Amino acid sequence: MEWVGVTLIKKVGCHVWTHRLMIPPKMRTFPCSDNYRMLSSYKPKNIKDSYRILKLQEGCSIDDIRNPFRNLAKQYHPDSGSVTADSATFMQIEEAYRTVLTDLSKKLKSREDEEEEEEDKFKSKTPQHRHYLSFEGVGFGTPSQRERQYMQFRVDRAADRVLEYRKQKLESQYTTNDIMIAKDVRQSKKVKITQAIERLVEDLIQESMAKGDFDNLSGKGKPLQKFSDYLHIDPMTHNLNRILIDNGYQPEWILLQKEIRETIEQLRRGILASRKKLGEPMTLCRQKQWDHICEQFIEDIKKLNKRINDFNLIVPILSRQMVHFSADKEIARAQKTYRTLMEEMRTSDKDPKENEQENVKLFRFKTTFFKLINLMLR
């Protein structure tokens, strides 16, 4: 290896000192420190030689080059303190590293140039009619001619829209006037009818008062009942509700609630009666009949739950909403009720027998007591 020169660079304060000197070819190299760098005239023969020095294969990436270079630098750097430290070998490694980086950068640049050329070729192959997509596809000729045609098109379109707007505005005005006239006619007719009804009612009231039909009314001469309990309700609304209640009117949700309660009670009584009718013990035939009765009961409960859904949709009070009935719980309830009834019947059958036994014992006790008394009197 032949050394051609050394450049010494040292930074003192804000000044940088540089010294250049030539080194004889036979002079032995010395290790460099952090502040001094040695330059070598060694150049790899070819790029393959550089890859061989770095122990790499061609086609690797930049990240793949850095790790081997660091490992080799740790082994051969003069300041590493390693046993294999050698400045000449390190210089070869560094030059090989720089050569490989230069080669990779050239390849990347050439690849980017190729991609740009391909993009240019692709752009040049795009259909030439694409430029007609501008200006909303209006006009023909050069771009400047098409632009002028497009501006004229926009002016014509704006004029058409203004005319259409004015036409619609005039039509809406005439329509509004016609509606107002018709509304006024209906209102006048309504006023006339209302006034006629009021006059008729007033005439009837005056005629009844003249005949004395109002002399025997209950509450005559007494003050009107005030709605002290319903201060937040309009008196007219209160009177209407009272009239409806007095005449037996009920809201739909109240009638539906009553229907649901009556239906569930009827179903409960029906399944309990069917269970009583089957009796004990439950044979195979009776079990089949009971299963059929339970299936029909489940269908009836499903229909009832649909009615509950309708009720929950129309009920005005959230707390009055109802929950679905469970067919399994109702069947278990019927079974439990049947068992309690059977137990009560059994206990009622046992009570007369026990009373008879107690009466017999009491009779025997009385007879023996009277016998003893007679013996004592003798």
From TrEMBL:
Q: Where is the signal peptide?
A: none
Q: Which SMART domains match?
A: DnaJ (SM00271)
Ranges where the J domain occurs? 49-123
Tell me which InterPro entries the record gives. DnaJ_C_subfamily_28, DnaJ_domain, DnaJ_homolog_subfam-C_membr-28, J_dom_sf
Q: Write out the transmembrane intervals.
A: none
Which Pfam family is one of this chain's hits?
Answer: DnaJ
Q: What highest taxon heads this organism's lineage?
A: Eukaryota
Q: Which PROSITE patterns match?
A: DNAJ_2 (PS50076)
PANTHER family associated with the record = DNAJ HOMOLOG SUBFAMILY C MEMBER 28, OS08G0560600 PROTEIN
Descriptive protein name:
DnaJ homolog subfamily C member 28
